[in-house]
Amino acid sequence: MxxxxxxxxxxxxxxxxxxxxAYLLLAALPGDAVIARYGSPELGLTPEQIEAIRExxxxxxxxxxxxxxxxxxxxxxxxxxxxxxxxxVSDLIATALPPTLTLAALGLALAVFLxxxxxxxxxxxxxxxxxxxxxxxxxxxxSLPVFWIGIILIQIFSFRLGLVPVIGADPVQALILPxxxxxxxxxxxLSQVLMRSIDEVREQPFVAVVRARGASTxxxxxxxxxxxxxxxxxxxxxxxxxxxxGGAVVTETVFARAGIGQLTAQAxxxxxxxxxxxxxxxxxxxxxxxxxxxxxxxxxxDARLRAGSRRRGAGGAGDAGDAASATDTPAADRAVxxxxxxxxxxxxxxxxxxxxxxxxxVVARGGNR
Amino acid sequence: MTALATTAGLAGxxxxxxxxxxxxxxRWRSLLSRVGFVLPAIVILVALLWALxxxxxxxxxxxxxxxxxxxxxxxEHWFGTDATGRDLYARVVxxxxxSIIGALVAVLVxxxxxxxxxxxxxxxxxxxxxxxxxxxxxxxxxxxxxxxLSVVILLGFGTTSAAVAVGVTSIxxxxxxxxxRVVSVRVTDFVEAAYGSGGTFFGVLWRHxxxxxxxxxxxxxxxxxxxAILQISTLGFLGYxxxxxxxxxxxxxxxxxxxxxxxxxxxxxxxxxxxxVVLATNRLSQALRxxxxx
Lengths: 369, 294
Fold this sequence. Notes:
The structure holds two protein chains of two kinds.
Chain A: H1 2-28, H2 33-38, H3 47-57, H4 63-75, H5 89-124, H6 128-142, H7 146-160, H8 171-202, H9 205-212, H10 217-235, H11 237-254, H12 260-269, H13 273-301, H14 317-328, H15 331-344
Chain B: H1 2-14, H2 20-52, H3 88-124, H4 126-141, H5 144-155, H6 159-186, H7 189-196, H8 201-238, H9 249-256, H10 265-288
């Protein structure tokens, strides 16, 4: 129970700090948003009128009062008003959210499918050449600019092959290319981490034992390797969410799709800080929430962390301690270490630190390497 | 590790066949890995030279109209011309300085600030560690693009602020890596010995802990360089980077977007240059770490 409380407490603290940082960055520092918006001579507003606007926006209050008021607003779902259009930010977000959620959900699903296909082919595919080619895919995907992927897809599928109409596409057709665009940058880190953990698990002694007892490759893959590779992958969930948000901004801009991403891009272009602040805060809440769920799920999924079964030295001496130390580090941090490990390589990664990545759940980290 | 994994996989599947066949395979492999090192190195070198001496690579002005608009690539204009008749190859060459130098600034910001935070947190420990790591948590909690957009909105649009904004997003990763290294170096025997033989806190930090923590951090910096190029070009594409006449790579692609149907080269060719440079950087950073590029 204390574990749950500690995690929730940490999450709330990070949220509070992130909100303060974002508020200071976006609402407090960049000069006077009211003057920037209404001060131009073309609008012909008198200083008194500008003062009145300021008062109506609550911008004449001291910073601390505005800050406390904005927290109260966010907690009640009132995100203030857009400086650019004057519309309520909550309304803007409510209309923009559904198309983005559709895009993100489909993109994520495709990314998971791609990542699993790539990782399994790269590790268990037939023939060394095939495996090597598939191992080369994630580094390539990582090197592609997302906006360029979108443009190239439009070029190939809409203009060269004429498969997806540019104008007058039905809603389903209009989703195809954006979903692919969004999926590629997400599939890359996912398949890298998957590949790494499959490589790690397959060298465990228990894999040889299971195989010796007559298990087929596919049985082994699904029942043992995939299950053990799930934990490090789950750790990546929050990080992938961040990629999804960034990907949505770019994808929606390239395909001119209405949604949170385009709302964000426009907000930056218009220096519409209330809108950007709302998007940042909502994304941060989602990120922290996802990581909290992953952290709380970990003891459920990892048998070694269940209360009562945490006996040191039962399965392998360093094992339980290793896993336990993993729960001391929030998923958000472990995800970074995981990615650094997978990309920079374990020789350089954070493995010696207390923030070690969790060992596969069945048998202790093999000493066979 | 990847080297180990691939050879292990090979041995398991085909069986080890001693003799000339495996010998040849090994020789072929090492040749391939040398090509895998030289080729990216050449790409990076060319990109660097483009950034430093663009005039050596093209006689054309990147901002002057030199030919009819929207000409396909030819011997005269390698990458074709854009909508106002500017030479696209010259624009890509001159754009290198924006991307490469921007990426250097970004990596430097992340490296210096991140390592300083990680070093302080790991070496001092206690409350300082707690506070600094919460700062890192906050930086991690805000999605990278949104964080850089927030910084850009604060600093204003432009090359430098885009570079700094991208740098800010990598502070957290550098800080965590540096801290974890410092924490493990701090308890080694030679650090204990350095303290024991009368070293001051800062002396030992500077002489022993920092140098011994730096190698993986440098490897990460090399990797971040490629991702910084991508992120800067993304900000440029969205229109928050260098202002329009500047030939920034992301902006070039954004400008070519309206001509996707008629002038493919405007988006395809600059994009390929970006991908090649980023691929080469990633490849090289992997090779520098001594790993077999997978």
